[in-house]
Amino acid sequence: MRNALTRAETMLRAACGERLRTSFPMVPLTTFRIGGPAALYLEPESDRDLAAVSEAVRETAIDVVVIGKGSNVLVSDLGFDGLVLRLGRRFRWTGRDGDRLTGGGAMPLPALSGVALSHGLAGLEFAVAIPASLGGAVKMNAGAHGLSLADVVERVDVYLLQEGRVAPIPAAAAGFSYRRTTLPQGAVVTGATLRLVRGDRAEIRSLMDDAREWRRRTQPLAEPNCGSVFKNPEGDHAARLIEAAGGKGTWVGGAAISGKHANFIVAGEGACATDVVTLIRRVQDLVEARFGIHLEPEVRFVGDFDLAPR
Ligand SMILES: Cc1cc2nc3c(=O)[nH]c(=O)nc-3n(C[C@H](O)[C@H](O)[C@H](O)COP(=O)(O)OP(=O)(O)OC[C@H]3O[C@@H](n4cnc5c(N)ncnc54)[C@H](O)[C@@H]3O)c2cc1C
After folding, report:
1. How far is the CA of 132 from the centre of ligand 1 (A)?
2. Domains along the sequence of the chain with CATH
3. The ligand 1 atom nearest the CA atom of 91
């Protein structure tokens, strides 16, 4: 692995120069604010950079992971022994064509929702307070208030690292389901086209204000977290099950189940990824023992964990 990483570093250094970083701290890149460093870290600014990444990854077979705003990831305390990619500023753009709004993969979803509002385009109100990048939101099929990206995405643009080429993927072929897509392994979402509808600006603004206000009321936004830790099981809510099983307030080390929302884990002073994973297992056990329901994590795990969640 060391040899492969060194070879990948040499190849990427030749293509991207000092923009390639080593032993790069990931704490500031995630909303949980915990975890170890990335062995290699790059913010690609173009398809050309992605082509260099593709070549290095295919030649050396190093592990690679893409992150967006890091709002749904838990990074191992040991970090990630491979290449972490986060789309750079040049992937932060928007364009409008009639009722269609297109954005780059690094475009923050709240900002994209703001652009929709400024054009009087309705349909993205649900997304205004989801702290995602467009790429991460598409990959996770992020959603709220009964809607998700699947309801508005018309086309996903990806760079296929395994093949070294760009590909447009029609929404129907992206495999959208609850907090999931079936985009190919190694597909970096570089942009997406959304089909919106013309609406009344005041009405759109009011729905967005309501969505923000609902979050402030119901979620522990002042503390580091990763949003909902578990997916909602069919016909129920993870938060209700955790609360009913007595999980609210449970803690391990510096990580605790939020008193405000039982499906949120908040990372307090000194929290580490191992605390979070141990707490995830404890909550899974509690709910399983009480209701016979297995809670599936929604959060994505980056790196190796001694105690992998089931
Ligand atoms: C306070 C808070 C509230 C939240 N509320 C909601 C909510 O209401 N609804 C909801 O669905 N989620 C919610 N989330 C979770 C999170 O915002 C979503 O899952 C979001 O889609 C993650 O986007 P991201 O850009 O941060 O991706 P990351 O968290 O960085 O990554 C998430 C996954 O997507 C992959 N990924 C990221 N970018 C790309 C890319 N460009 N191409 C390919 N793969 C990529 C990563 O590898 C990882 O598997 C919340 C999180 C927080 C912290």
Report:
1. 5
2. 2-86 (3.30.43.10), 92-217 (3.30.465.10), 220-302 (3.90.78.10)
3. 41
